[in-house]
Specification:
The chain is an alpha/beta fold. It has one domain: Alpha-Beta Barrel (TIM Barrel). The protein has a 7-stranded parallel sheet with strand order 1-4-5-6-7-8-9. Strands 2-3 form a two-stranded antiparallel sheet. Helix 8 crosses helix 10 and helix 9 crosses helix 10. The chain is globular, with a radius of gyration of 19 Å. The protein binds coproporphyrinogen III. The site of coproporphyrinogen III has 23 residues, from loops. Coproporphyrinogen III (CP3) binds next to loops.
Length: 326
């Protein structure tokens, strides 16, 4: 999940000088911000500093962050969908690809770089709602009253996101992660119709490009927690990212043994005591079992997290997992 951000004083210092989108659009700044948590926390992997909504201007929709996202206009009809472009990442987001190339030079070879994008359903949710929401009435209204338009929109999102994530792999990202934060609001049958096929399409693009390059790139799908978790087996992901609302042993029982899991500590645990952090981390590791688990928070780190507590977690996980394999 997000490991850079406002909880780090060095991030806040840069953000005093540059706004969020400028930081995403300037390869040197995106590179520096990506490296901040790697330096301070000693994590095993870096996640590119960017945002899932960065490709939207290339599709024809401006976006601002205040700090939550606000879109210049919404997409709610067939006519609106027709105005959307399928963007070419080399033209619309060259700075993301430059940041990846720069990072591959700056990161130690043992620290892999995770590239990411928003999954088509989550992108479509922002396009239809225009901002964050708790009701999701507009996206659901579109799904349930005009499913042809919904599918047309999801197709354009899938094509744009597929090209975008595949281009990140081409530029040097060593894992490709799709965030489907809002798909958990769907009933299982709606998930199978409106989200799953488009996730598979994006991962097919990633797989094709990786195979051409002779690379085996992990495909991580962040699903949060949902009633349709077993359906994730059909997404062509190799890793499923989970939040904290499901125990990893139970999640695995539904996912089968072919998929690795990622997550699933509640980020709010980092606001509590360091003893509590260590014991919660141990519980996640115990439930995850000895292999096929990437330890991670179940969602983005909260802005008031003490950086020392994040470091304590990384150290505890390193120690606990070295004991486990010893
Ligand atoms: O650690 C990293 O560097 C990863 C970078 C990253 C960001 N956003 C940076 C960011 C990643 C992986 C994301 C993903 C993202 N963005 C998702 C999917 C994951 C999730 O959180 O469920 C979603 C839904 C978004 C959309 C988005 N962007 C929201 C809802 C917000 C507001 C969040 C907030 O904390 O206020 C953003 C802004 C954003 N994206 C920030 C960061 C660091 C905060 C911007 C700032 O004020 O500096």
């Amino acid at each position: 999940m997000r490991q850079a951000g406002r909880y780090l004083p060095e991030y806040r210092a840069l953000r005093e000088k540059h706004d969020f989108l400028t930081s995403c659009r300037t390869p040197e700044l995106a590179c520096e911000i990506t490296l901040q948590p790697v330096r301070r926390l000693g994590v095993d992997a870096a996640i590119l500093f960017s945002d899932i909504l960065v490709p939207l201007p290339g599709m024809g929709i401006d976006v601002e962050f205040t700090p939550g996202p606000r879109l210049e206009r919404t997409i709610r009809s067939a006519g609106d969908v027709a105005t959307l472009r399928v963007s070419d990442p080399h033209e619309s987001t060259p700075y993301v690809l430059d940041a990846i190339r720069l990072l591959r030079r700056e990161l130690a070879p043992a620290v892999p770089l995770i590239g990411f994008a928003g999954a088509p359903f989550t992108m479509a949710t922002y396009l239809v709602e225009g901002h964050g929401t708790k009701q999701f009435a507009e996206i659901k209204r579109l799904l349930f009253t005009d499913s042809d338009t919904a599918h047309a929109l999801l197709s354009k999102c899938a094509e744009t996101v597929g090209r975008y994530l595949a281009a990140q792999v081409e530029a040097g990202a060593q894992a490709a992660m799709l965030f489907d934060t809002w798909a958990s609001l769907l009933a299982p049958s709606d998930y199978r119709e409106f989200a799953l096929p488009y996730v598979s399409r994006v991962f097919a693009d990633v797989k094709r490009v990786a195979t051409t390059l002779g690379l085996d790139v992990p495909r991580i799908y962040y699903a949060g927690t949902a009633g349709w978790l077993d359906a994730c087996r059909a997404t062509d992901a190799t890793v499923i990212g989970l939040d904290w609302r499901i125990d990893l042993d139970r999640a695995r029982a539904g996912l089968g043994d072919q998929l690795a899991v990622q997550g699933n500590l509640d980020p709010t645990v980092l606001l509590g005591s360091t003893d509590g952090i260590t014991s919660r981390a141990a519980d996640v590791l115990r439930r995850a079992g000895p292999t096929g688990h990437i330890f991670n928070l179940g969602h983005g780190i909260l802005p008031d997290t003490p950086p020392d507590h994040a470091r304590c977690l990384v150290d505890a996980v390193a120690e606990l997992s070295s004991k486990r394999t010893a």
